[in-house]
Every structure is written in C-alpha cells, then in structure tokens.
Amino acid sequence: MNLLEVNWLAIILAAACGFLVGGIWYGPIMGKKWMGAVGLTEEDIQGGNMGLIYGGAFAFSLIASTMLAHMFFRLGQPPFHVKMMISTGIALGFIIPAIGTNYLFSKKNKTLFFIDAGYWLLFYAAMGAVHALLG
Hints:
By secondary structure, the chain is mainly alpha-helical. The protein is built from six helices and no strands. It is globular, with a radius of gyration of 16 Å. The model has no long low-confidence stretch (mean pLDDT 95).
C-alpha cells in the first residue's frame, strides 16, 4: 500500500467517528461514572491541557484508522460484514484483554474496566463501519 492507494477520506472520517464515539461515551453516557471510577472531578478535568489531550486522542485515532485501512487493503478489501468482524474482533481479542490485564495488575476497579472496554468496542465498531462503507 502506498500513499496514493490510501483512502484518506475513509481514514480521516473513521478516525473522526471513533473520536466522536469517545466524546459521547465519556460525556453524556458514561462521563460521571467514569470520573467517579478514576477519581477525578470536573475541576480536575477542566484543569488539563485540552489541546494536548484531544489532539493526542485524535492522533491516536488516526493511527488506529490508518492501520485498519492498511489491513483491509492487504486483505483485498473484504466485504462489509468481514470488515466489521475484524474491527470489532480487534477490540474484543486484543484491546480489551490488554486493558483488562493492565487493570488487574494496577488494581483498577471493574466499573472502570467495563466503561473503557465498552468504549473500545464501540470505537472499533464505528471505525470499521466507516471503512466498510467507504473502503
């Protein structure tokens, strides 16, 4: 895959959708529970470097989206349902077990694990859907 073979629109839109999922998930849906689970207050969050936090999060979304695009390209652009199985499978088979292991050893609570695991599943499902529709 070279730079001309990349569907940059799909990569950017998929990253934006994953990013948007995070805003909704950690905002109105799970924001208060998440803050309680990590021990943060509204003031703590507002005191952070928002440009760095959101810019970094979007950059990481772009990396993940680019890797999905690369994998789908190497697989010969599989059909929609296969792209969805792969993208959600990445979350279920790699991301969630990895954070689960980290949370076990760092003794983080199960509420935080389920909040974050749910996010990563939705994140990869959203990105997979965009790549499946546009790729």
